[in-house]
Amino acid sequence: PVAVKVEVGGREVSFETGVVARQADAAVVVRSGGTCVLSTVCVAKGAEKIDFTPLKVEYMEKFSAAGKTTSGYIKRENRPTQSDVLVSRFIDRPLRPMIPEGFTKEVQVLNSVLSYDFFATGDTLAMCGAAAAVHISSVPMSKAVAGVRIGRVDGKWVVNPSATQLKQHSDVDLVVAGTRSSVLMIEGACAFLSEAQLVEAVKVAQESIARICDAMDELKRLAGKPKDEMELFKPSEELMRTVGKYTEGLEEAIASQGKQNRDERIREIRGNMYLALKPSKEEFAKDPEEAEAKAILIDIAWKKTIAEYMRKIICRTGIRPDGRQLETVRPIEIIPSYLEGPHGTCLFTRGETQALCVATLGGETMAQRFNSIDEDGTDRFYLQYSFPPFSVGEVGRVGYPGRRELGHGKLAERALLPAMPSREEFPYVVRLESNILESNGSSSMASVCGGCLALMDAGVPMRSAVAGVAMGLMLEDGAPIILTDIMGMEDAFGDMDFKIAGSAEGITAVQMDIKLEGITSEVMAIALERALQARMHVLDVMNESMSSHRDELHPSVPKLQSTIIPVNRIGALIGPGGKGIKALIEECGGENALTLNVSDEGTVTVSSKDNLVLEKALNMIKSIVLEIKVGDRFDAKVTKVLPFGAYVELIPGKDAWLHVSEVDHVKIMNVTDVVKEGDVVEVEVIEIAKGNQCRVSRRAVLPFPEELEEGGTDDESESAKSSSSDDPLAGAGDDALMKKPAKPQTREASALNNILKKLRTASSKREELRSSEGRQKREGGEKRGKSRNEKRATEVDDEIILTGPDKSSGGAEKGSKSKRRGTRKTSETGDDDFVGAVVINDS
């Protein structure tokens, strides 16, 4: 086992080999803190006769690395996620130019995140691990390659920031890869970074890259394998000279106007060349493989010849194949609102590259869900890029987007994201499509320009317009030639593809790929300056077409509003098992009429095409999340009636108990005589018990009857008369009471007299019942008397509720148990006429 260590960004990074995966051509384990990545390299035994390097790079994040599993039905990681594909791409891009042209043995590089500590991200470690594995393998590689991530926290550059720093504090997310002295690849997003700041960030990254490359060289010295010395599959100098003899008219063909016309003329010259040099039938019959290899070499030589001619024309004349100067941007044509049905559209054409961009607005249910080892979440803005084969006049595969489509779409999305409004400013979820209808270079940058205009056409209040342009490079005799707004041929045969997007304020996204062994920061600075000039020109053209977003949304856009509720009231809104939300949606017309989403932070978003439905839903939400207090009044719906009370619904999903004693000021025989299921009654909250259970009173909101104020009912009159005696608990006979004139009493005095009478009667009946039970026990009789209705006594804090049988009960029996300051009592009464409540203060 061999291990080397290096400090990067204030943390130690180790490279280990010789412990695991020893059957592979090379295997390296990279560790930083608790994050561990395994990178392996395997090389096929035989070489293929092809015109490209068959390098395959895969990256996968094992959910078990973070102690998780996938949230989907299938718990095994199978198809790579979009994030995995994007990481695989930026690992591949700096490695490919470092493998010699003509090395055609298939090389497979696999990277797996085995452990994750939620601090050190696995993607940049995988990039370094893959480069180290290739470096010590038998694959010929000219120089060590490494990569780091650059963030900016509180205005300071941070190398390999933690996952938390990157998401919550950094306004820059750049991945930079290169050799000890040059840059090979840049990928990332930033919040309106200036050109000078981007160059500064790359220089900071270069310092750490150099230290990592030194560590890789040390690892190679200790554990490196001999390099494969296979004969490279590329055309010989003699074949190149032979092909060059059949290039009459090629310079004029390259300078032809129009991609199709240019391609047709070049194909014609190639056809004449191939007829003269192609393998004969005898050669195919004698050795088919050798003959096929010769044909492929002729094709490679022809491509090299075209590249040489194009580069010579540009270097000699300063004129590009389509007739433009080096710094000229292709003609731009913009048609906003190209389609009537979608919420926002724009047809953006630059030269022979055309993008139809379509924006769609919706509620939270339209958000794109994702899950990763970091988190499970949703994207409220996302761009989907499609590149059908007809855009280049070819027949090809149609289906799930490939790596190129995912990469181009993500680049355009990153470019537009910093200019998108916040959720508070614009609560809609936004889906943006970029459909490439024609392509001759820079389709991803056309997606940025057209996408921005489509968003503005949909009424999205963009912070600023965003445009993008692709820059090219040709190095001839060491002198760099920078090309602005490159087309397809210049991209294919040039040395660099440098895409920069941003607004007038600064850069928002960047992607750079180099086909050489890297460029210096000085050359990159020149390209950035030219890109700024081109970007400002494109922004001026876009501003002439649409200077601001639409004031009104498309008629088909659902109305959307958001409100914030206390986090502790989210459960009240959702209800048990989601019953609360389901009832609310049904009340508002169902799922076709209303969609509703609740975030963990308490943001509630509702959307509907009907303003009345939207207003009704918001009012219901406010009612549901309202914290109920004693004294609050509601128009409650009776949901269930029982002999001793009723359940009422204060707000959707919130029930309360209305006891029979709280239905009216006077005694009622049957609850249904006053309220029935479905009735709406006004009630007042009189108590909130544990578990947020509520007791309400209808009596509390009713006016006190005049007859009770003057003398009350017969029952109350008797209480009033008895209270005038010396002993309020020992009342006079009925005859004596009837002879005494009724005294005017206040409401409180009348109620108190009634209470005293009920207590006196209950006490008398209780004594009688106890005497009767004692007599029965002494006599040993088994008969327990006639059946009686159960009585209950319930006390909550300072209240005791006594209930007795109705008139048909025929007597009294042992009552229910009640709780009073932690003790249990049995309340029993034989008052057949008594149905009511008694309230006693602590005193």
Quick check: average pLDDT? 84
Tally of helical segments = 20
- Enumerate the strands of the largest sheet in spatial order, edge to edge or round the barrel: 8-7-9-10-21-20-18-19
**Number of strand segments:** 34
Our estimate of the beta-strand percent is 25-35%
Poorly predicted runs of 5 or more residues: 712-745, 781-843
Distance between the termini: 85 Å
Q: How would you describe the oligomerization state of the chains in this entry?
A: single chain
Q: In this structure, how is the largest beta sheet organized?
A: 8 strands, antiparallel
Shape: elongated
Class per helix and strand makeup:
alpha+beta
**Helix amount:** 25-40%
Radius of gyration: 42 Å
Can you offer a commentary on this structure?
The protein has 843 residues and is of the alpha+beta class. It contains 20 helices and 34 strands. The strands form 8 sheets. It has an 8-stranded antiparallel sheet, with helices on both faces. Strand 23 and strand 24 form a beta hairpin. Helix 2 (122-136) crosses helix 4, helix 10 (403-416) packs across helix 11 (443-457) and helix 18 crosses helix 20. The chain is elongated. It starts with a strand and ends with a strand.
Task: Provide a brief overview of the structure.
The protein is α+β, with helices and mostly antiparallel strands. The chain is built from 20 helices and 34 strands. The strands form eight sheets. It has an eight-stranded antiparallel β-sheet with strand order 8-7-9-10-21-20-18-19, sandwiched between helices.
Walk me through the topology:
Elements: E1 2-8, E2 11-17, E3 26-32, E4 35-47, E5 55-61, H1 82-95, E6 105-115, H2 122-136, E7 146-153, E8 156-159, H3 163-168, E9 170-178, E10 183-193, H4 195-223, H5 237-244, H6 250-254, H7 259-277, H8 281-286, H9 288-317, E11 332-336, E12 344-350, E13 353-362, E14 368-371, E15 376-379, E16 381-386, H10 403-416, E17 429-438, H11 443-457, E18 467-476, E19 479-484, H12 488-493, E20 496-502, E21 507-514, H13 521-545, E22 559-564, H14 570-574, H15 579-587, E23 595-598, E24 603-608, H16 611-625, E25 633-642, E26 645-651, E27 654-659, E28 680-688, E29 694-697, H17 706-710, H18 714-722, H19 734-739, H20 747-779, E30 793-796, E31 799-802, E32 817-820, E33 823-826, E34 838-839
Parallel strand pairs: 5-6, 16-17, 27-29
Antiparallel strand pairs: 1-2, 2-3, 3-4, 4-6, 7-8, 7-9, 9-10, 10-21, 11-12, 12-13, 13-17, 14-15, 18-19, 18-20, 20-21, 22-24, 23-24, 25-26, 25-28, 26-27, 28-29, 30-31, 31-34, 32-33
Helix pairs in contact: 1-2, 1-10, 2-4, 4-13, 5-9, 10-11, 18-20
